[in-house]
Amino acid sequence: MKTALALLAASAALLAACGNDDSSSGVTDTPAAAEERQADTTAPAEAPAAELAAPRRRGPRVKLRESQFGPVLFDGRDRALYLFTRDSQRQSRCYGACAAAWPPFYAKGRPRAARGVDEDLLGTVMRRDGRRQVTYKGQPLYFYVDDPKGQVLCNDVVEFGGTWFALTAAGKPPAV
Questions:
Q1: Phi-psi category of residue 78: left, alpha or beta, with phi > 0 → left and psi -120 to 50 → alpha
Q2: Rounded to two decimals, what is the model's pTM?
Q3: Does 113 fall in a domain?
Q4: pLDDT of 19 higher than 60
Q5: 174 within some domain
Q6: CB–CB of 122/68 below 8 Å?
Q7: Would residue 93 count as lying in a domain?
Q8: 175 assigned to some structural domain
């Protein structure tokens, strides 16, 4: 019931556009977007030792795809992936309204690399709620809630106290 109320509240507010630095803004969340994010979530960890052990199941796929910024990382469903400069290596600082606008890229298993993506740079980090978030070169990865599939709309955008960048195969922001 709380989840339904939270989803209803989130859908009642509208994030003006990426680049709006008002961290108190809400977002519109479509049922399809919520369903896609739900499909990539995992249950909370069973023990603290689970934080150190990588999941063994086949997880989400990360691929390289052309964009207006050159080849950048996308998930297996053609959603652009971003890093947040406010995050530190292997630790997310995007929660609450931030995570509603920039949903974390969750993994049920070990992330898989498609052609052009360095498998050694993929990993996961445990979030406060116990779910695993995919990382690339140690940086937690996110989506932008309003990005259409196959498009990068919010590269080099300042929001929620940091800058959001798409990532190249080297794990760096694209040259703009």
A1: left
A2: 0.71
A3: yes
A4: no
A5: no
A6: no
A7: yes
A8: no
